[in-house]
Amino acid sequence: MKIAINCIYYTPKGGGITEYIYNLVKELVKIDSKNSFIIYTTKESKESLRLIVGAKARIKVFPYSENQKYRRAFFQHSFWKKEELEEKFDIFHSPFFHAPVFKHAKTILTVHDLRFLNYPKSYKIARLIYLRYAVKKSVKKASKIICISEFTKNELIKNYGVEQSRLEVIHEAVDREGFNLSDKSKNRVIKDVKLRNNQFFLSVGHLEPRKNYNNLILAYSSLSESIRKKYPLIIVGKKNHDYKNDLKLIEKSIGVFYLEFISREDLIWLYANCKVHIFPSIYEGFGFPTLEAGLYAKPTIGANQSSIPEIAGKGAIYFDPFSIEDIRNTILKVISDSALYDHLSQFAKSNVKRFSWEENALKTMNIYHSFK
């Protein structure tokens, strides 16, 4: 079979979709030598993807660059029509929730979440209008839809009425090779913040309303002064939609520190040396931070919402993200009960083993082969 994978949204310093594309493509070319792969990417990312696939796949450049979003949206149809005619690929896999319409090729979508429906204000109006149209059409036409969690699967059924037979849950995983800790130092200064091993709380995610930092900070601020002095709260993430209120609250809250741009090495050190990872988010399609913290046996104190319980499993203890009191009490419970903490740490580390990029690729390959 000839399989085309659309990697035009891959950027070397991207987020969840970039992680998905990188790991999926890397594993696919490693386990499959029978099928023929075509990787479509932008000019900017061509060499980065070439390092991943080597000579095991052909790379073709999509004619619109990353910053030509409107031209890409409105003029790509003729390009894909020409490519199907020229390449005659059997499968077209879109690693995100919309895809071109093809005459013969089977189309596979990977849907990460439906945030644009649940949090429309986090998108520019033109992008939102396009997604509402394109995703609905793509979901209707897709031969198969890969969902990265049961939560996302249920979102597709609820919002689009997709038949169960066209949906398959294939969990993502954490890139273990990319999370090796090179610096063994116990203490560290990051962005002028002095941090001691096992003596700070960590929360990772962009500043935006769905991440629920407002309630986390209020809950943290209600802890005693002695606890806050011992365990500063470190928040790591880019400024995203409607972040100013969170930033103001951080600036006036004692013991709360915000780190926007840090190196990957610093991020890994934070995971490896925090006391706990706190995940107050209200809406997540998957939630990588719980697994990244679990690599270092760090338990998650997380919201009982969306996909978080599904992914964090027994390696976390959960709270009502809308209750400041419940968040506060759950934090206190974990740090004051050493037996509970050790129990959660053990399960946090073993929980990571449930997820594998190799297994993700094998299950994806099975979907490709189902159309032979």
Features of this protein?
single chain, 372 residues, alpha/beta, 7-stranded parallel β-sheet, 6-stranded parallel β-sheet, 15 helices, 15 strands, 43% helix, 17% strand, globular
What is the terminal separation in angstroms? Answer: 8 Å
Can you give the helix content as a percent range?
A: 40-55%
Shape: globular
* Helix-strand sequence: EHEHEHEEHHEHEEEEHHEHEHEHEHEHHH
User: How many β-strand runs?
Assistant: 15
Strand content: 15-25%
Helix/strand class: alpha/beta
**How is the biggest beta sheet arranged?**
7 strands, parallel
Q: Give the strand order, joined by hyphens, for the main sheet.
A: 3-2-1-4-5-6-7
How is this structure best described in words?
By secondary structure, this protein is of the alpha/beta class. The protein has helices at residues 16-31, 46-53, 69-87, 115-118, 125-141, 150-160, 213-221, 225-230, 244-252, 264-273, 288-294, 308-312, 324-336, 338-351, 357-369, and strands at residues 2-6, 36-41, 58-61, 91-94, 106-111, 144-147, 167-169, 188-190, 193-195, 201-204, 233-236, 256-259, 276-279, 300-303, 316-319. It has 15 helices and 15 strands. It has a seven-stranded parallel sheet, with helices on both faces. It has a six-stranded parallel sheet with strand order 12-11-10-13-14-15, with helices on both faces. Strand 8 (188-190) and strand 9 form a beta hairpin. Helix 1 (16-31) packs across helix 15 (357-369), helix 7 crosses helix 13 (324-336) and helix 11 packs across helix 14 (338-351). It is globular and about 70 Å long. It starts with a strand and ends with a helix. The relative contact order is 0.12.
